[in-house]
Amino acid sequence: MNGDSREATSLYQVSLLQFDRALTWVDGLKAGMVDAFRNPRRTTHVHFPVSMDDQSVRMFHGFRVLHNRARGPGKGGIRYHPSVDEHEVAALAAFMTWKTAIADIPFGGAKGGVVCDTKALSRAEKRRITRRFVIALDDSIGPHTDIPAPDMYTDAETMAWIYDTFDTLHPGENNRAVVTGKPIELGGSLGRDEATARGCLYAAEQALKRGLVTDLDNLQDATVAVQGCGNAGGTALRLFHAAGARVIAISDSSGAIHARDGLDPDTVLAFKKEHGSVVGIPDTTTITNEELLALDCDILVPAAMEGQIRADNADAVRAKIVVEAANGPTTPQADQILAEKGIVLLPDILANAGGVIVSYFEWVQNLENQQWELEDVRARLQKRMIKAVDTVVDCWQAIQTDDRPPHGKPTLRDAALVTAVKRLATVTLQRDIWM
Ligand code: NAD
Predict the structure, then answer these.
(1) CB-based contact 78:153 (threshold 8 Å)
(2) CA pair distance 31, 19, nearest whole angstrom
(3) Is any ligand 1 atom within 6 A of the Cβ of residue 289?
(4) Is the CB of 233 within 6 Å of ligand 1?
(5) Which of 72, 232, 268, 403 could form a disulfide with 325, with the two C-beta atoms 3.0–4.6 Å apart?
(6) Mapping DSSP to helix (H, G, I), strand (E, B) and coil, where does residue 17 land?
(7) From ligand 1's centre to the CA of 269, what distance in Å?
């Protein structure tokens, strides 16, 4: 997997390295404030019993990490995975703090997880785990304190169970805003499903408009390779195609497919639904995920998982711009290699913020008992993504020539983190949080 055994690829290491590096361009932060931003404010561990379908009782371990709440209630998904741990969740919670600050929405950062293998659980067992988890978390979550959302192996149905359990424990209140990513009928927002990929599309369009990529100022006929074909990647395929780009490759965990003339999204998504993989679609060439990352294309969209572009394969990347739909797909060493090659990278905390932006819209609609039209949601998302990209690009241009050894010149990821840290520092000082 990793050509350099010393390379930091765990999300936790990566998040700290990125943060420490970006601080180089933030002057005047007190050491105590840096420590507060580096560490989660609270980590809640819970152990809870669940009765299984075979009448046995099993203990489960879950946690919720609240990284920071200075800008508003904690916000972040809940992940069900056998290998999820406190460190991974802490890194993802920190990403959420930076993401909500860059998007300028009134939330902090949080994330949660339960150690379990949903593939080995029945739907009823997953439901009982979810309900016991919410009961065990007690008042750690709430519409104005910490608001969960879906993440790996949790979905709208899981969010409905979270809402129902919390609502049962807190009767007589409008509790819909306790969780986002709910089914539409239960207060979910139109456009939430496509929000992450749509946000990536708007971010890419604005970055091109700002002239970040030589000889490419719009998506018309731009060639795109997408790694991953789930919620983020599959929707990116559809939306980039609809915007006039030519998606020439896409992959999943079984492999990748390539078609120089472009893929038809309906064919790809229907085939994937029927066969479980994109591999084998007629008139496409099967390639590996590594080969996809190295394709000659204009735009590369990593939309699968963390640690995909590393020191051992970054030099092979030939795209002009990388748009990170996934969280943490590029390691810090790979960031430097891409920068040296002149490849522009729109970082995850900017590029994939569309999901949490529409989650914020859902929260607002819930508090106001409203349902916005889909076109309204899209227009509001576009406005916020354009503003976020402009803010980060402006910050980057302002510090671009500020070469600070040993880090060299700042990247767009550095500029995004600088933007977020400064915003967080401002409200932290205004609130006089340490009294
Ligand atoms: P998903 O589970 O729906 O899809 C993941 C896809 O990646 C699947 O097609 C899977 O087959 C593929 N995949 C897994 N391992 C792979 C590998 N080694 N090589 C190539 N493909 C592989 O997940 P998702 O919701 O689309 O999330 C993908 C990434 O985007 C994650 O990093 C997630 O944290 C991030 N993200 C998602 C959202 C969202 O709203 N869905 C929001 C922000 C960030």
Answers:
(1) no
(2) 14
(3) yes
(4) yes
(5) 232
(6) helix
(7) 15
Tell me, in angstroms, the distance from the centre of ligand 1 to residue 293's CA. Answer: 15
Question: Atom 30 (ligand 1): residue with closest C-alpha?
Answer: 326
> What is the torsional sign of CA 206, 232, 145, 84?
negative
Q: Which of 163, 63, 165 is nearest to 116 (CA)?
A: 63
Please state the atom number of ligand 1 nearest to the C-alpha of residue 305. Answer: 32
Atom number of ligand 1 nearest to Cα 306: 32
Q: Which two tokens stand for residue 321?
A: 């711009």
Closest residue (by CA) to atom 34 of ligand 1? Answer: 327
Cβ(149) – ligand 1 distance below 6 Å: no
Known catalytic residues? 111
Phi and psi angles of residue 121, each rounded to the nearest 5 degrees, phi first? -115, 150
pLDDT of residue 5: 52
Atom 31 of ligand 1: nearest residue by CA position: 326
Asked if pLDDT for residue 368 goes beyond 90, the answer is yes
The token pair that represents 385 in the structure block: 């993504």
* Cβ proximity of 249 and 225 under 8 Å: yes
Supply the pLDDT for residue 434.
66
* pLDDT tens column, 289-300: 999 999 999 999
Task: Give the 3-state secondary structure of 368-429.
Answer: HCCCCCHHHHHHHHHHHHHHHHHHHHHHHHHHCCCCECCCECCCHHHHHHHHHHHHHHHHHH
Is the pTM of the predicted complex or chain greater than 0.85? yes
Return all residues near 338 (Cβ < 8 A) that are at least 6 apart: 309, 314, 317, 322, 330, 345
Non-local CB neighbours of 264 within 8 Å, separated by 6+ positions: 241
> Which whole number is the average pLDDT over 239-253?
97
Please give the distance of CA 144 from its chain centroid, rounded to a whole number: 22
